[in-house]
């Protein structure tokens, strides 16, 4: 008699897989998972997810490189709204949160594809009570809106992307090559299947095309930092743009003193003519942002700065706003002595600044803003400025002036000077390698610490890096496809009869062998019993016949 013993089927806990499918699609249970092909709807959502990730990656890169001009961005928005706020903080915070969220979903989706799990982006996210699909669409729509807004408000800043690629291009190429090479694992997993379809062939063709384009990308990469060391020109001079506005309020005497302490070659300032013909330094059209005019002359805070006489202007405090607004997030690093000096600063006249430059044997770059038509010095504003230059005692050869409308690049003798703000070491390095002789900067204390370009590579060395990275990528991709082919062929030749259900606990090999023997013995007994019954039945049938 055969005694049937029930076999209990026990599954090993797959915590990692449960986490992936649970977070992405709220499929926490084993029976909820599926290895079937994803629906067209879910594939469409995956494409949207990839598009959102790519756009957010570009958006994050833009703001990372635009750090050079955050203050300029806030100033542009101030001119539109009339209220000073650091609007880069909410933009950076939302970008970081959105990019992290989309990147996390992207990683989960790729893990699903790698493990052969069906994509199923769940409607209700039980962890944060949020709609992932709405999150993806919100990130996509918000990013597109941000790009359009930046193009309208700050369109000139797109140039920073092209300039930054001259510095980061070689490294971005290697990073992109590594990422696409790693994606070869997923592509090979789908292509080497026995049941190949047109989709698989198109996928393979697209992947190889992208890979080939990356292999040849260095032919299109042009960076001034790829050059021989012997061709590197001398270090560009640094011009103190409104002094050193990170260390003291802009266009004040203290700010220019701080810039001279950092070794600048020239001082740059914005010049406006007062109602009584005194040239003074002021960047904005009004006095609202950089003085306490709201307290002293509350009814006139929106008037043009040139419509005040010099006595009224001199009575205003030009430093307290810096301590309160902290436009560069540097007030916390100032000494107590510097803070006390800043609290008592006043508006600086042009004569004071030029006398300081003359004593330090430095040059001056002046941007002249023409007063409004109703101003009494509307027609003599340039002559008023020249008289101030003469009274200061500085050599006129050391003074260069230009209308405020011309703020790109200009010639000073045989030298090319860029007045585009250069505040980051990477941008300073690119311009250095490009042969620029002088740069205008809000951060002379930062550029002073850049004695050499951040990176410099000879053409031969870069060519070696390029060829080596391509060969390594080719070897890895070929190895991946060979391994996936071997892995799939092994799975196809696998005998399902070799699968054995395990008990609750992992049994040692001796127990497994005993269980196998019991099953074989029981099966043998059953076959013998069936054979005996068959023989007995035949014998009885023969007796009845006879």
Automatic annotation (TrEMBL):
Keywords from the named record: Glycoprotein, Hydrolase, Membrane, Transmembrane, Transmembrane helix
GP-PDE domain residues: 236-518
List the transmembrane segments.
43-64, 91-115, 127-150, 170-188, 200-221, 464-483
Subcellular location per UniProt equals:
Membrane
Q: What is its main location?
A: membrane
- Which SUPFAM superfamilies did the record assign? PLC-like phosphodiesterases
Superkingdom, according to UniProt? Eukaryota
Q: Which GO terms describe its cellular component?
A: plasma membrane
Give the GO biological process terms. Answer: lipid metabolic process; positive regulation of neuron differentiation
Question: What Gene3D superfamilies would the database entry show?
Answer: Phosphatidylinositol (PI) phosphodiesterase
- Bilayer disposition of the protein: Multi-pass membrane protein
Recorded GO MF terms: glycerophosphodiester phosphodiesterase activity
Matches recorded under Pfam families: GDPD
Report the family membership: Belongs to the glycerophosphoryl diester phosphodiesterase family.
Q: Please report the name of this protein according to its UniProt entry.
A: Glycerophosphodiester phosphodiesterase domain containing 5
Q: What is the lineage of its organism?
A: Eukaryota, Metazoa, Chordata, Craniata, Vertebrata
């Amino acid at each position: 008699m055969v005694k049937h013993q029930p076999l209990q089927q026990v599954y090993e806990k797959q915590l990692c897989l449960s986490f992936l499918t649970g977070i992405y699609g709220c499929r926490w249970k084993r029976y909820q998972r599926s290895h079937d092909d994803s629906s067209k709807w879910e594939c469409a959502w995956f494409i949207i997810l990839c598009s959102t990730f790519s756009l957010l990656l570009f958006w994050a890169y833009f703001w990372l490189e635009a750090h050079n001009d955050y203050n300029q961005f806030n100033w542009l928005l101030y001119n539109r709204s009339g209220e000073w706020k650091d609007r880069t903080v909410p933009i950076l915070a939302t970008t970081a949160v959105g990019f992290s969220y989309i990147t996390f979903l992207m990683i989960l989706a790729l893990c699903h594809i790698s493990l052969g799990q069906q994509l199923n982006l769940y409607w209700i996210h039980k962890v944060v009570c949020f709609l992932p699909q709405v999150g993806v669409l919100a990130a996509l729509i918000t990013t597109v809106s941000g790009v359009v807004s930046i193009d309208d408000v700050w369109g000139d800043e797109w140039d920073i992307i092209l300039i930054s690629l001259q510095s980061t291009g070689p490294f971005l190429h290697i990073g992109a090559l590594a990422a696409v090479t790693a994606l070869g694992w997923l592509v090979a997993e789908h292509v080497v299947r026995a049941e190949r379809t047109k989709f698989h062939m198109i996928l393979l063709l697209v992947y190889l095309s992208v890979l080939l384009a990356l292999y040849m990308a260095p032919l299109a990469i042009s960076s001034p930092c790829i050059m021989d060391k012997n061709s590197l020109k001398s270090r560009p001079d640094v011009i103190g743009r409104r002094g050193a506005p990170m260390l003291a309020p802009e266009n004040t005497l203290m700010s220019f003193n701080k810039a001279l302490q950092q070794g600048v070659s020239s001082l740059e300032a914005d010049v406006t003519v007062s109602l009584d013909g005194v040239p003074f330094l002021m960047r904005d059209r009004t006095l609202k942002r950089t003085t306490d005019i709201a307290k002293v002359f509350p009814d006139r805070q929106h008037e043009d700065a040139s419509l005040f006489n010099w006595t009224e202007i001199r009575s205003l405090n030009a430093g307290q706003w810096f301590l309160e607004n902290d436009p560069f997030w540097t007030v916390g690093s100032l000494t107590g002595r510097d803070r006390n000096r800043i609290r008592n600063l006043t508006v600086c006249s042009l004569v004071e600044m030029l006398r300081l430059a003359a004593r330090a044997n430095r040059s001056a770059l002046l941007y002249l803003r023409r007063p409004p038509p109703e101003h009494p010095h509307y027609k003599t504003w340039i002559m008023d400025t020249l008289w101030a230059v003469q009274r200061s005692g500085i050599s006129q050869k050391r003074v260069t002036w230009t209308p405020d409308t011309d703020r790109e690049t200009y010639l000073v003798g045989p030298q090319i000077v860029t007045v585009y703000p250069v505040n980051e070491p990477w941008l300073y390095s690119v311009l250095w390698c490009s042969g620029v002789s002088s740069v205008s900067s809000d951060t002379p204390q930062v550029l002073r610490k850049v004695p050499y370009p951040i990176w410099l590579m000879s053409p031969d060395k870069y060519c070696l890096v390029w060829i080596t990275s391509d060969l390594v990528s080719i070897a890895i991709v070929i190895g991946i496809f060979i391994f996936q082919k071997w892995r799939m062929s092994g799975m196809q030749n696998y005998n399902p009869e070799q699968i054995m259900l395990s008990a609750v606990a992992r049994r040692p090999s001796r127990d497994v062998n005993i269980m196998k023997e019991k099953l074989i013995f029981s099966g043998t007994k059953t076959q013998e019993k069936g054979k005996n019954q068959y023989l007995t039945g035949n014998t009885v049938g023969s007796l009845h016949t006879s």
